[in-house]
Amino acid sequence: MKRVSTLAMGAAMAFGMNTQATAQDGVPGPDEDPYIWLEEARSDEALDWVRAENNRTMAHMAQDPRFDELTAEALAILDAEDRIPYVSIRKDGLYNFWQDKENPKGVLRRTTLESYKTDDPEWETVLDVDALAAVESKEWVYKGSTCLPPDQRLCMIALSDGGEDATILREFDMTTKQFVEGGFVIEEKSQGGVQWLDEDTLLVGRDFGGGTITESEYPFTTRLWKRGTPLSEAEEIFRGEASDVWAGAGLIRDNKGVVHGRTAFRAISFHESINYIWHEGEWVELDMPKKASIGGIIDGQLTFSTDVDWETQGQVFPADALVAVDLEEFKRDPNGAKKTLVWAPAERQTKQGGGVTANSAYMAILDNVVGKVLKIDFEDGEWVTTEVNLPDNATLGVQATSSETDEIMFTSTDFLSPSTLWYSNGSGDPQVLKTSPEYFDATGMEVEQFEATSKDGAKVPYFLVKPKGMEMDGKNPALLYGYGGFQISQLPSYRALTGKMWLEKGGAFILANLRGGGEFGPGWHQMAIRENKQRTWDDFIAVGEDAVKRGITNPGQLGIQGGSQGGLLVGTAFTQRPDLFDAAIVAIPLFDMLRYHLIGRGASWIGEYGDPRIPEQREWIEGYSPYQKIVDGVDYPAPFLWASTADDRTHPAHARKGAAKLKGLGQDYWYYEDMTGGHSGGVDNEQRAKLQALQMVYLMQRLMDDNEAGE
């Protein structure tokens, strides 16, 4: 789930598991929910239950003769030495974080461009996470770094114990390859992060105690921390409100590292923020939509992105547009600076990220779910946009940029072609730098695109990847994957594990582009949130029905899969249409939507789903919440639910409670919980491979072995 933001109830409501809540609050409490005890992530009782379920699932799945083979196939791909080592471009070299069988927790390493261009680059280890974990007896997971521009020598390294989102932060010197003695350290794990103001000053947003986090467990204050002083004494420079999802201050900084001002925001919901600029000694609210954000600097112009139509200064900038003001004019008069249009989407186009080099900006877009990359420059007072010469009919992205030069790297991928990394120094067309090896045999496979008609008549696109020799006779095992939330797009890409472990074995793969996602811009997302969230579930069901109608598969051989918001999607699908599917992988899901705001960081997503404490909004949610929709007397398709004990985002309680309720009703189900991984599951490749094998064995047993319905 991207972005961070929410509505909070304030300090009067205890954060976390409100096990005293009753139906009088509009929230099921212990009297109504016999499995509420599973919301305590690490209680002895809950963990005993988890171990018993894991043992049951492993005893069944691991005895399948395919389990070891599938695990080995997944691990070989995940540990492959010849996979592309994607990099970031820094002043002192190209940096890569790498995990394999020799380095399960990973190494941060660097090389030169000249060496990287070879088939066997020479890497210099900067930080060995396995060695650090061994010395400190921790399950350290590397969560990235925040470095001081422009040379990026000093960095704050983020480490998570076991994979949860909460991290500790330590100052690290990339030149000496050592943690800085006496340097900045935040050892108490928390959400939030830091930004460098200068070599001796950090902007810090963390849990400082005393009620400085929201109900969603995100910080809403920012402090200015000077080197050599206690963090507890750092000056508070911005404070949001306890009712925000998240709030904090940041910097306007150009690609040379020069700071041009301070900004701040209050995320009043997951999708809405109030933005501020520090101007003449006070925080001034910016006159901009709540569904808009400040971007970066291009050729002395400060950019903004908007998810809604923006009417200002006698003109209207359309939703998804890129807007700019002159930076110096903005610094003098933040709300009066003249705004100009940089780019606006044509029909079925949308932005998909980008990057800035020393002299240009690059923006990846989708054009009817096909990738393009645009180069953007401000020349002689005009915006000039040119398309970068990259492959057609592929998913394209900006992988890495240099702030010092015009160097840039792009990626291209599709379902059946290995991913390719492209390089340009800013002059001429990009050239192939590296190509991923083929991890599965795509000979004879095909990709087609279809449209399903949803319940309200909307046309919903989806891709079908057909295994070799597949006929549209309705007798094919098929896996339908979806997400449909938070404006996140599901795009064609080279899915090596799916290809090797499913397509090669004769299974078809279907990728749905549901409303609620971002495939066609912010409007595609906003059509299916809050009171209209059922549209996402309807779209997914419509794709399943269309796949059966076209002869791709049949209900006895159709499985569904999704994680996080996608886990909620799968939960709604198998509870609303249990007759349409025969397998359902419910991964790291949201599931109990009447208590989701009390579990993990659920309150941060009220902007997407609504607030179950408000009767009108509870009615929307109650109409689909999978946990409540599991009832006696219905034959569900024996779902496989899995979660992670360390997941402090969606929380394992959702999957646990779903499995426990199915068990209580005597329904078939499977449950597995990774006891060390975070929200994505698995902290090393062996764990990830096992998770993949468990799911594939389950699908094969359900959809390939017992296929009487398809005969």
From TrEMBL:
Q: Extract the signal peptide range.
A: 1-23
One GO molecular function term of this record is: serine-type endopeptidase activity
Instruction: Give an example GO biological process.
Output: proteolysis
The record's section on InterPro entries has: AB_hydrolase_fold, Pept_S9A_N, Peptidase_S9_cat, Peptidase_S9A, Prolyl_oligopep/macrocyclase
Residue ranges constituting the Peptidase S9A N-terminal domain according to the UniProt record: 32-425
Gene Ontology terms, cellular component aspect? Answer: cytosol
Q: Where is the Peptidase S9 prolyl oligopeptidase catalytic domain?
A: 501-700
So which domain of life are we looking at?
Bacteria
Q: Which keywords does this Swiss-Prot/TrEMBL entry list?
A: Hydrolase, Protease, Serine protease, Signal
Annotated Pfam families: Peptidase_S9, Peptidase_S9_N
Listed PANTHER family = PROLYL ENDOPEPTIDASE
Protein name as catalogued: Prolyl oligopeptidase
Q: Which organism is it from?
A: Qipengyuania nanhaisediminis
